[in-house]
Design brief:
A: 240 residues; Rossmann fold; 2 domains; four-stranded antiparallel sheet; 10 strands; globular; D: alpha/beta; 42% helix
């Protein structure tokens, strides 16, 4: 079943076209990956899906509903969350408070389901449990990344957008993060991943798209794209 | 110096060209190839002639028009000075009235309270004293950034007023009176006399009022207006030179990003202090002229509210653009006098006007040219942001 | 100096009373600053409208004569509700008409400051012209007493007589003074807990720290900003009630002067920091009293501003620093 | 095209203006005529809007009554109307307004300026133009010392009030120790210093609070109670006077409270509430009589101000000028001479001016006792 569908999306900054007519869809229960160079439009695509950027033309459907002009919080309510680029944890809040922020729109704060979700996040990121009372701003980059992902999961989303989760992390941590991405999928949450770390990302993607200057230039199953010589040459060069 | 002039020329040339092109048809009608200089001269002459022409519609009822023009002139001068501080250097000063007061008090002290200096000798002293006070107040306060500066400067504005009030040497609460007018230049009857127009019957006739040129009496504000208008023109020229010099660029860099400016070798503190001192100096100049025109100053003449009006003038005109600042000053000072019939409603209408103006022109009426550039650049930056990912 | 020592308790306690009002008003500045990084110049008028709500509602209830604090408790409770509603409502109006559009368009700070100054003029002038506005609307007959002499002082119809209740040092603390200090502390505590512990509070802090990330979590930033103004207004309403209990009189221009001081208090404590607002308010109140005692009251405002400059030179972001977001707010 | 035409017109306009000014003789703009067809104006300069607007309101009542009396007393005289010029009491705004009045040939006299500050700023111009001004309320001592030929006032200056106020405190109240507070305004400092001089060592303390800068006077209150003064005199305006008294009483002060003419209005009693009982207010002004109030009630003009402090003085000031016009003085010169030589009974006092424009003999200074929430009839201090 198609969970997210992008049709003919165009996004402009002033007169500059950042996204030029891209279309793709994300099937429920899969990992879909967008790869591409700096400035290709990956982050813009995610911000548009989350409602942080206005669409110039085209439309976005989530779960069969047109959400092109929906507010970010309306999308969160429908089950679409994002772990943004650069983590963007609330530095002045504790880990617990950050997680609670993730569950902002949930009304079942006292329910078993909520506690279950919290346990699930702590299961994925045991480090977070150790530091529930620590201010997020004082944690390391890797820990903040975990927090950002955990926070996005706390809304019990159907689709989670992960923007560059491996950015700026040590190789060992990167592997850990990616195995958690697998875990998230295994637990039944659909993932839309944006990565520069193409090798790791493609390996586990059901579908992947390559973006170049705002357009999708190549699509296919992750493994297949990873084997594509052109993709290899362009994106898999010095990868970990 | 050459640098400055060629820079100035380069900066002005396109503007002049644009004006020239726009006015070309006028030139054709008048049979001239280029009309920009004659036209500009006529424009300036027209402004000089305003107080004697008493043009209908812009003339003020119930309030002497040349007196109003003088008040507008002081606001314009103040706005030019404050524009350097807010518009060029990006320092929000909510206590600018303090410098206005220092200028006025300097003149008051040396010409009336503790001396009989002639005005034209007191004026340079007022400039020096206000500049010094700008440095004195700026040195400690400019180290605080952003909004803190706003409140600290506001505090200093108040401190100056209260100190004046509590200090007997400065006339205390009673203020300083009998501040003399500037000395006349030429004979008692003025160099020559210019009659005023009257529009009483719908068409211009010659009134029996005359203005004595360069005779600074208490009855006629016109010579004072000419004095302040001349000062304004000089200040505008100086402003153009500075804005386009190395100093102007340093201010711009400091305003846009202080840290980057520092990294590029701009001693930002020094330049901020310079902006503060220059702004103070021009504010003091306006205060000095106010003092000699009104002849009486007291602490309540320099309330905090005046600072807010000054800032409003600069900002609604468009901080960073001297013409915008001038227009803002004219709006703030002239409109309330022109629409005196609204009497009690003036401040209310003014408040509404402020909200309306800024909500439709979010950069002020005339944003500075670099402001427009920045706005344009910001859009592009947003795109570049995309590419600025750290890998 | 001798005077200060001899009357230390009295000067301190009356200073705390004054400081409590500063602190409650300062909260409005600090909250809006924390979320939007803007100086809400119109907040002083939000307070002023609250004081009028107190006067009007007591007039409407037909209160008169003199009363002890306890005797007027019923009236004052109703007045408190009225003031909170009024100030909260005015704060929302300010947000709607002077801020929202500009904030959305990402207008420069100065511009928004000017809009706020404009709003401040409008609000105080509406109060100062209420007889003419009522006349214009044909309501002068109906509103009668409420709109008379708008430029004059309006006084509380019931006069509250303070009673000494508690001896501290050589000073008998009055019940009204005790009420004001305790109420301010309670309000601060409640607000602090609200911001720290509730979901609304967390949203405010989240928007203050990172508006975009907050909206990814599902925070509706328009609502958060509105809520922030509302809380500031509510606090101003409480301050207005306490102020009227103590001073008993108000005017269309009382906001400006108090607003400047409250804002100074907020900056002194570290703007954007709730506890800073309390600390700044109390310190400012006490400092003004001490300075008035030692140097003479004509120097109190100078003292306030000099204190501010000195603090900022040593601690550039106020006594407690800016941090609406900090875990320990 | 439109812009071009406009600029052409402007050029032509300037040119023709210059030509006109070069050759035309001054046009006669004053209207001829005689007897009752003539019309003139008297002007009021003072605050009609802003924080002090009420003083303008009070003056307006007096002037309007005087105008009505004038029309009744001189039915065949020239028509006189009043021009109200709103300075907001601000020395910065006043000069342009004064210049406009001076340029208006119909204006034969000015009631005002209302405040001392604006008087300092505008009187040089009036004096040079020979336009007489009679102030109902500007009481700063120094105003009469500057050699202005057109300056007159129908109110005793602060110098007269201070010794009388001191006398009230010592003789009527019987205080042995007095605490003097001023409001740091020119008026308050002048009056307060005068009282301190007159009381000498009976003053055991003083403080200065800024007008309108605060509503909390706790430090001042502490000073007063700590000093143990038997009486407090506040030189300032009504609202602050009321607040200070209220806060003094709340702090347990039981001595006598007194203030000056600036506080002589109902705002003081309203603000101080019950605490105002037994307070003394000094003023060089008598109360408005019932007759005066009745006349005001009978006025039919739509905007007739309201009666308050200095309404009667405004009446007297207006009457001095109006009676001159009624008696056939229809040039500024004649009106000025008329005022300088005026010698008749006014409603507040006998009006005759000294050479410096002060009211001759200063009239009396009165005190008003607050009782049962109202001012009692004034009693002369002598």
């Amino acid at each position: 079943m198609t969970l997210l569908e992008i049709r003919d999306l165009n996004v402009n900054y002033g007169h500059i076209e950042a996204i030029r007519g891209i279309s793709f869809s994300v099937e429920e229960g899969t990992i879909t990956t967008l790869i591409g160079a700096n400035g290709a439009g990956k982050t813009t695509t995610l911000k548009t899906i989350s409602g942080l950027r206005k669409v110039h033309s085209g439309s976005v459907f989530f779960d069969g509903k047109d959400i092109t002009n929906a507010k970010p919080y309306e999308r969160v309510k429908m089950g679409l969350t994002q772990s943004p680029e650069g983590r963007r944890c609330f530095p002045g809040m504790t880990v617990m408070e950050n997680l609670e922020m993730g569950a902002l729109l949930r009304k079942d704060r006292r329910s078993a389901a909520y506690r279950e979700d919290l346990e699930r996040v702590f299961g994925l990121f045991p480090r977070l449990q150790e530091r529930v009372k620590q201010a997020a701003g004082t944690m390391s980059g890797g820990e903040q990344q975990m927090l950002a992902m955990g926070r996005a999961l706390m809304a019990r989303p159907r689709l989670v957008l992960l923007d560059e989760p491996s950015m700026g992390l040590a190789p060992k941590l990167i592997r850990q993060i990616f195995s958690i991405v697998d875990e998230i999928k295994a637990q039944g949450t659909t993932v839309l991943l944006v990565e520069q770390n193409a090798n790791q990302a493609l390996k586990r993607s059901d579908v992947a798209h390559v973006l170049e200057t705002g357009k999708i230039v190549r699509s296919g199953p992750g493994e297949k794209l990873a084997a594509d010589p052109a993709v290899k040459a362009a994106y898999l060069g010095g990868d970990v | 110096m050459n640098n400055i002039i060629s820079g100035l020329r380069a900066r002005l040339a396109p503007v002049a060209d644009r004006v020239g092109t726009a006015l070309e048809p006028v030139g054709r009608v008048l049979g001239m190839k280029s009309v920009k200089y004659p036209l500009r001269t006529v424009g300036v002459l027209l402004i000089y002639a305003l107080p004697i022409l008493h043009l209908p519609l812009i003339n003020t009822e119930n309030s002497d028009f040349s007196g109003v023009l003088f008040t507008v002139g002081t606001y314009v001068l103040v706005a030019l000075g404050l524009n350097i501080v807010i518009g060029y250097a990006g320092l929000l000063d909510l206590g600018y009235v303090g410098f206005y007061a220092v200028g006025a008090y300097t003149v008051g002290v040396v010409t009336s309270e503790h001396g009989q200096w002639p005005f034209f000798l007191a004026l340079p002293l007022a400039l020096v004293v206000t500049m010094a006070s700008g440095v004195l107040l700026g040195a400690p306060t400019l180290r605080v950034r952003g909004d803190y500066l706003a409140i600290v400067t506001m505090g200093f504005g108040e401190i100056i007023r209260i100190v004046a009030r509590n200090t007997d040497w400065l006339g205390g609460a009673g203020g300083i009176n009998s501040i003399p007018s500037p000395p006349d230049i030429g004979p008692e009857e003025g160099l020559f006399q210019i009659p005023h127009l009257s529009w009483q019957y719908g068409y211009p006739t010659i009134d029996d009022r005359v203005t004595k040129v360069l005779h600074f009496g208490v009855l006629d504000a016109t010579p004072y207006f000419w004095m302040i208008l001349t000062t304004i023109i000089l200040v505008i020229c100086a402003d153009m030179l500075i804005k386009n010099s190395r100093v102007g660029r340093a201010w711009e860099a400091t305003r846009e990003d202080e840290d980057v400016a520092e990294l590029m070798g701009v001693p930002t503190f020094k330049f901020k202090l310079l902006a503060f001192a220059m702004g103070a100096c021009i504010g003091g100049l306006a205060g000095a002229m106010y003092a000699t025109r009104v002849g009486f100053i007291n602490p309540p003449s320099f309330p905090l509210m005046l600072s807010l009006l000054f800032v409003a003038a600069v900002v609604i005109g468009g901080a960073g653009n001297r013409w915008g600042a001038i227009l803002g000053a004219v709006i703030v000072a002239y409109l309330p006098e022109r629409f005196r019939e609204f009497a009690d409603w003036r401040l209310l209408v003014f408040g509404i006007a402020l909200i309306v103006i800024v909500s439709f022109r979010t950069q002020g009426l005339f944003p500075g040219r670099q402001k427009k550039r920045v706005a344009q650049a910001e859009k592009e930056v947003q795109k570049l942001e995309e590419g600025a990912e750290i890998v | 100096m001798e005077f200060l020592i001899g009357n230390f308790a009295e000067l301190t306690i009356t200073g705390l009373v004054l400081g409590s009002v500063y602190a409650l008003v300062a909260l409005g500045y600090t909250l809006v600053y924390g979320v939007l990084q803007l100086i809400n110049f119109a907040h002083s008028e939000v307070f002023m409208w609250g004081t009028y709500a107190v006067v009007w509602v007591l007039t409407l209830l037909g209160a008169s004569g003199t009363s002890s604090l306890a005797g007027a408790a019923g009236y004052l409770a109703i007045a408190l509700v009225a003031a909170v509603l009024m100030s909260g409502g005015v704060a929302l109006i300010v947000e709607r008409f002077a801020y929202r559009r500009l904030v959305r368009q990402n207008a420069p700070k100065y511009i928004i400051l000017i809009s706020a100054i404009g709003a401040s003029f409008v609000l105080s002038e509406i109060m100062g012209l209420r007889d003419k506005i009522a006349g214009f609307l044909g309501l002068q007959g109906v509103l009668g007493d409420y709109v008379n002499n708008p430029r004059n002082t309006s006084t509380l119809p019931v006069e509250i007589k303070p009673e000494p209740v508690l001896q501290i040092g050589n000073y008998m603390v009055r019940d009204t003074e005790l009420l004001i200090i305790i109420s301010a502390l309670i309000m601060m505590f409640v607000l602090d807990q609200f911001i720290r512990r509730t979901s609304f509070g967390r949203q405010i802090r989240a928007v203050a720290q990172d508006p975009e990330a907050a909206s990814l979590m599902g925070a509706n930033s328009t609502n958060v900003v509105r809520l922030t103004f509302l809380i500031g207004g509510v606090m101003a309403g409480v301050a207005a009630t306490l102020y009227m209990i103590k001073v008993g009189a108000t005017g269309f221009n009382v906001g400006f002067v108090l607003g400047v001081k409250a804002f100074t208090a907020a900056v002194l404590g570290g703007i954007g920091n709730l506890r800073g607002a309390l600390l700044g308010g109390l310190i400012l109140g006490i400092a003004e009293n001490y300075a008035s005692g030692i140097l003479g009251s004509e120097w109190r405002d100078v003292t306030a501003f000099v204190l501010l400059v000195l603090v900022l030179l040593v601690r550039p972001s106020g006594l407690l620093g800016e941090s609406l977001g900090r875990a320990r707010a | 095209m439109r812009a071009i035409k406009a600029s052409q017109l402007l050029v032509v306009g300037v040119a023709s203006a210059l030509v006109l000014s070069a050759c035309a003789a001054p046009a006669d703009t004053t209207e001829g005529g005689s007897g009752s067809t003539e019309s003139f104006s008297i002007a009021y300069q003072g605050p009609l809007t802003g924080a002090d607007a009420k003083y303008g309101e009070y003056a307006k009542a007096g002037i309007e009554i005087a105008l009505a009396d004038y029309a009744a007393a001189y039915p065949d005289g020239p028509t006189v109307t009043a021009i109200y010029s709103d300075s907001q009491g601000d020395p910065a705004q006043a000069p342009a307004l004064a210049a406009d009045l001076i340029n208006n040939a119909d204006v034969l006299g000015v009631v005002g300026p209302a405040f001392s500050g604006e008087t300092e700023a505008t009187e040089p111009a009036y004096s040079e133009a020979g336009l007489v001004t009679v102030s109902p309320s500007a009481t700063r001592v120094s105003l009469s010392e500057q050699g202005w030929s057109t300056f007159f006032r129908v109110v005793a200056n602060d110098g007269a009030q201070a010794p009388a106020a001191a006398k009230l405190l010592t003789d009527v109240v019987g205080a042995k120790t007095v605490f003097v507070i001023d409001d740091a305004s020119a008026y308050g400092v002048g009056l307060g210093d005068g009282i301190k001089d007159a009381l000498g060592d009976k003053v055991i303390g003083s403080d200065s609070v800024e007008k309108g800068s605060t509503t909390d006077f706790s430090a001042t209150v502490t000073k007063v109670t700590a000093s143990g003064a038997e009486a407090v005199y506040y030189a300032g305006y009504a609202t602050d006077a009321g607040l200070i008294q209220k806060q003094l009483t709340a702090a347990g002060f039981e001595g006598t409270y007194a203030s000056g003419d600036g506080s002589l209005e109902s705002t003081f009693i309203e603000t101080a509430g019950e605490a105002s009982e037994g307070a003394y207010l000094t003023a060089a002004a008598g109360a408005a009589g019932d007759d005066f109030v009745a006349k005001w009630d009978a006025l039919t003009v739509s905007d007739k101000g309201s009666i308050g402090v200095y309404s009667t003085e405004a009446y007297d000031a207006a009457w001095v000028i109006l009676s001159g016009i009624g008696e056939g003085n229809t040039t500024r010169e004649d009106v000025l001479a008329w005022v300088a030589g005026y010698d008749a009974e006014g409603i507040t006092k006998h009006i005759k001016f000294a050479d410096n424009g002060e009211i001759d003999g200063a009239g009396g200074v009165y005190y008003y006792l607050v009782k049962d929430g109202d001012f009692e009839a004034p009693v002369a201090i002598d």
